[in-house]
Amino acid sequence: MSITVVGSIAYDAVKTPFGERERMLGGAAVHFALAASFFDRVRVVGPVGDDFGETELQVMRDREVDVSDVERVAGGKTFFWRGEYGWDLNSRETLDTQLGVFEGFAPKLSEASRSSDVLFLANIQPDLQREVRAQLPAARFVALDSMNLWIDIARDSLVEAISSVDCVILNDAELRQLTGKPNLFSAAREVLSWSSTTGSSPDQAHSPDGARGPSVIVAKQGEYGAALVTRERFFSLPAYPLESVVDPTGAGDTFAGGFVGYIAAHLDDDRAAAEQDRLPDELLRAAMAHGTALASFNVEEFGTERVVRLGEAEIAGRVAELREITSFSGVPAIG
Length: 335
Ligand code: AMP
Fold this sequence. Notes:
Layout: E1 2-6, E2 10-16, E3 19-26, H1 28-36, E4 41-49, H2 54-61, E5 66-73, E6 79-85, E7 92-98, H3 111-114, E8 118-121, H4 126-134, E9 141-145, H5 148-153, H6 155-163, E10 167-171, H7 172-179, H8 184-192, E11 216-220, E12 226-230, E13 234-237, H9 251-266, H10 271-275, H11 281-298, H12 312-325
Parallel strand pairs: 1-4, 1-8, 2-6, 4-5, 8-9, 9-10, 10-11
Antiparallel strand pairs: 2-3, 6-7, 11-12, 12-13
The structure holds adenosine monophosphate (AMP).
């Protein structure tokens, strides 16, 4: 299986109570790709300006991420984001967003990127997410992330983009903002009811009426973890307990990389489910654990600094610890 991701490839300026970086490699697609590369082959689609360094591209190549669809726009400037965190890292203020080369970008995907079975539409303008979605009509699993900015200024386009995917990964507060529902479950139910027949082929359909639309909702809850809502089930995991968190930037995208990467690598493990285009519950739960483990490494240092030094055994270790801290015995205490 292979994964195509479109989203921001960026320079970030970040200030947290534990330090600051003025210009570091960032972007939703970059954080996603580095995390997903532990599970499967990843192809990144997106533009950079001629200010983007070879060293930064090499960070992705070193994890065997395919960057041949990263388009260098002559005379253009790379996407830039500046953010600052409050004392407990729970609040974040965006101080500057410069779309740069993303303004007017028309994604042209190579044959290889169009043939991926799994697509992740990382956080970027919803119009762009839809353009890329339309170029992979036969993808078997498509997930999408977004943020409050696009809910504020491009909601209609975002709703249309969401109707053409299988999985939506959003911050808890953004899920409520998007739907206008104050409750997590009713907000998730609302998104689960959005479907469309555009951009999908009937034989790839996940719902009985032949329409494509989200069947998996993940609500990211920052330091409290993440919740998974499907039509039938609910599952929730806390974040991996850490005493030292330095920079949460990219945690959501790193979670998504672990989650989607794990699903891509195991899509065909259960043959019967794969034939019916079903995602088994066990697969989704294990994917949640891997996303959670990956995100926990990301926040230990600035930007991509920790994830680029990460090893598979470390990931497996934290997944095992997560299993341990979330299990309990069923012996009844009463009765
Ligand atoms: P996260 O902390 O998971 O929300 O992701 C932070 C990353 O998203 C940073 O590396 C930024 O470069 C990128 N980012 C911030 N704002 C935007 C935006 N409006 N569109 C796309 N990417 C963004």
